[in-house]
Amino acid sequence: MESRRKSEGFTLIELLVVISIIAMLLAILMPSLTRSREQSKRVVCLANLHAIGQSLYLYAHDFDGMIVPGECQTPWDVWSVPTENAGGVIRDQPQSVNLGHLLSADKVPMPTGDNHIFFCPSGSNFDRGRPYDNFKSTWGESDSTTYITYMFNNSLDGFDNCVAPGQQSILFHTDKINYLLTDGSVHVFNVKKLVYDDNVGAEGLAQVCSRTDVCFPTSMLHGWFANGQVNIDEAKEFLANPMSWVSQHATGTISKPVRLSNLGKKSLVADVVGGWKKSVQPETRGRPVPG
To answer: Looking at the whole model, is its pTM more than 0.90?
Structure first.
């Protein structure tokens, strides 16, 4: 009877074999599961952009055909001090800016968590925390700036070329950027590795931004979306001296309301933002230097 009870258990060798098989199966399956999970997040991100597009159309319908004003130089901010409004007046107090106008105009429900169209499911805030945490703590505060995980094309009405030292792009989907067109359709921009510096070799877009501590100007990024590829010569010219490039290309125009029907087929929103390195002082965050 005692011998029978012993035979019903597992020996140490058998347990090790079972554990080894499970570990091997996990090693085989994990990359596939990770890719499937990321694919699902990209689909949700595309759905978010589509919903933002519908909200922009609703906003234009109620505001004489105009899109939301891009009156803040930082394109992913939704609550901040605008640099200038449609009349060129600099405000002293923060208010809704860029896509934040959709919230203040009740075209988009106020976020109550990360599951919101303003937050890419693969995204994080600048310190890699939950996006909604920043929104909850800063929206509506007089001394705060609130950002989301989508970049509005505020170059459409004046803020076309500005850059801040210390910034670097964050690509939430690593080698892909989802973006929204004015016709409401959503598309994917494939980020290929290119040689931005002969001494470094081929790099992805996020890699070169991290290495050089800059985020490419909004108009440049959206121009690449339109052409379907990175303009490597333009990128190299910019990286050689970002501030000089900005001063040469900035239009100096005051932002004015833009009629949606006059924009043609241009990109409006994309899921790429700029981040700050920890070495940058907090009081300078979210305040790009104008050209």
So the answer is: no
* Residues facing residue 190 across a β-bridge: 176
Q: Taking all residues of the chain, what is their mean pLDDT, rounded to a whole number?
A: 78
Structure tokens at 229: 């590829």
> What is the distance between the alpha carbons of residues 110 and 93, in angstroms, rounded to a whole number?
21
Distances (CA, A) of 27 to 15, 31, 34, 35, 181: 18, 7, 11, 13, 40
Number of H helices, E strands in the chain: 8, 13
Helix ranges restricted to H, the chain: 2-7, 12-62, 100-104, 131-138, 205-212, 218-227, 232-240, 242-249
- Cβ 108 vs Cβ 185: under 8 Å: no
Spell out where 83-214 has E strands. 95-96, 146-147, 151-152, 162-163, 167-171, 176-181, 186-190, 194-195, 202-203
Q: Token digits for 213?
A: 């501590």
Kindly state the average pLDDT of the residues 26-30.
Answer: 68
Which tokens belong to 131? 């996006």
Token readout for 266 is: 């241009």
C-alpha span between 194 and 239 (Å, rounded): 14
CA 73 to centroid of chain Cα atoms: 15
Contacts of 196 (CB under 8 A, 6+ apart): 203, 208, 232, 235, 236, 239
Angle (nearest 5°) at CA 219 between 291 and 151: 105
Task: Tell me the C-alpha distance between 235 and 100, whole Å.
Answer: 30
| pLDDT of amino acid 91 | 66
For residue 71, the SS3 value is coil
The answer to whether 108 and 55 have CB atoms below 8 angstroms apart is: yes
User: Which of 155, 141, 130 has its CA nearest to residue 96?
Assistant: 141
